[in-house]
Specification:
- This protein is mainly β.
- The chain folds into 2 domains: about 1-85, Thrombin, subunit H; about 85-364, 7 Propeller (Methylamine Dehydrogenase, Chain H).
- It is about 5% helix and about 40% strand.
- It is built from 2 helices and 25 strands.
- The protein has helices at about 280-290, 355-364, and strands spanning about 5, 15-20, 25-30, 40-45, 50-55, 60-65, 70, 75-80, 90, 95-100, 135-140, 150, 160-165, 170-175, 215-220, 225-230, 235-240, 245-255, 260-265, 270-275, 300-305, 310-315, 320-325, 330-335, 340-345.
- The strands form 7 sheets. Strands 4, 5, 6, 7 and 8 form a 5-stranded antiparallel β-sheet that branches. A 4-stranded antiparallel β-sheet has the order 9-12-13-14, with no helix packed on it.
- A hairpin with a 5-residue loop joins strand 15 (about 215-220) and strand 16.
- The longest helix is centred in the C-terminal third of the chain and has 12 residues, at about 280-290.
């Protein structure tokens, strides 16, 4: 059974649910964060074992054990960050050894239905190279086995690193100086709206400006040498990182028709990227003045290596909040303000056939 963790579609009520993606039914649900706080984001990874973390708007991050009967009734740990903002937490991403898979993709901008996206047998010039290596990654584990959670700090420009095991803060970036902070240059760096932590990083850190508008979402690929970012404007940035040289380079800048990207994700095999947009919010405003019917659009899919569009997934009737890929690269999940979660079977990797396996055995 493939299990994907999602927060409640109505996050304002603080409910956290576990879904069985095979039966499309709720396995377990709990009230993770009460009152008007709600659940803002969730995280799970192999480094955490059978644990999922929820982030509430109440300044708390809670860990929940996965049991036979579902989620534990009480949190197994609580991290009191005392931070109140709109920045989603991040677990540390660690690159692992590469392995090969095969995927056949063709460019398309037509709408599709949930659960399956048509794939043509004869991929065109926009196809990905099947021989390209892929990367598996683990989230929530560092090189020494310590689980680390990253979150925006109490000061708007800060990022805090927390030890999940001990529920203690271990670092604050940039480091605070003992002098008066009023004249400190980092005071002018603004508000942290998105964060993604990863290992390794051979440089001491560097600053790059992707857009004049706020960056609301960022995702780092499995190699930790690049990523994708989106914000309040109509541009999606794909970038590359060179940690040894401490350099940043913009690989692709994609302009979209309607501004606003709330979420980004890169598939674990580093071949596909997806974004969740504000399309419906824009269309609602336009339809108010022009009396046009709103068209459900919001999930865009791209070839991560080349930057070309592969598909536009039309299903949700309200603003899309987030997208995520399953670890086996077979499913894409999207959630929306319309209180629905959609699952898409999006260009699944090819599984070795019996003939291929027999051929490999003969060669050996």
């Amino acid at each position: 059974m493939l299990g994907l963790w999602f927060r409640s579609t109505s996050a304002a009520d603080g409910e956290l649910r576990v879904w069985d993606t095979a039966s499309h039914r709720t396995v377990s649900s709990i009230w993770a964060h009460g009152g008007a706080a709600g659940v803002y984001s969730i995280a799970a990874g192999s480094g955490l074992g059978n644990t999922v973390i929820s982030q509430g708007r109440d300044g708390l991050c809670k860990g929940w054990a996965i049991e036979e009967a579902g989620l534990s009734r009480r949190p197994i740990f609580t991290i009191k960050t005392s931070t109140y903002h709109f920045c989603k937490m991040s677990l540390v991403k660690v690159p692992c050894s590469a392995h090969g898979t095969q995927t056949n993709l063709s460019g398309s901008n037509s709408g599709t239905e949930p659960q399956r996206v048509p794939i043509e047998d004869n991929a065109g010039s926009d196809s990905l190279n099947p021989a390209e290596g892929t990367q598996e990654y683990e989230q929530g584990s560092s090189l020494d086995g310590q689980n680390i959670l990253t979150i925006a700090g109490q000061e708007s420009f800060e990022v805090e690193l927390w030890d999940i095991k001990n529920s203690t803060k271990i670092m604050c970036l940039p480091k605070r100086c003992s002098a008066n902070m009023t004249g400190h240059p980092t005071k002018q760096k603004g508000l942290c709206m998105a964060v993604q932590a990863f290992i390794p990083c051979a440089s001491g850190g560097y600053v790059n400006i992707l857009s004049r508008c706020a960056a609301l979402s960022i995702a780092i690929d499995g190699l930790c040498t690049g990523g994708i970012s989106g914000g309040a404007d109509n541009k999606i940035a794909m970038f590359a990182l060179n940690h040894q040289k401490g350099t940043f380079s913009l690989r692709n800048e994609i302009e979209i028709e309607r501004p606003g990207v709330a979420g980004t994700a890169i598939r674990p095999d580093n071949k596909i990227a997806a974004t969740a947009g504000w399309d419906h919010r824009f269309l609602e405003a336009r339809s108010t003045f022009k009396r046009e019917e709103s068209v459900p659009i919001g999930i865009r899919v791209y070839n991560y290596n080349k930057g070309n569009a592969l598909a536009i997934l039309k299903y949700h009737s309200a603003t899309c909040a987030a997208v995520t890929f399953s670890h086996d690269c077979k499913l894409l999940a999207s959630c929306s303000a319309d209180t629905t979660v959609a699952l898409w079977e999006l260009y699944p990797p090819k599984t070795p056939s019996k003939v291929d396996i027999a051929t490999e055995e003969v060669e050996k």
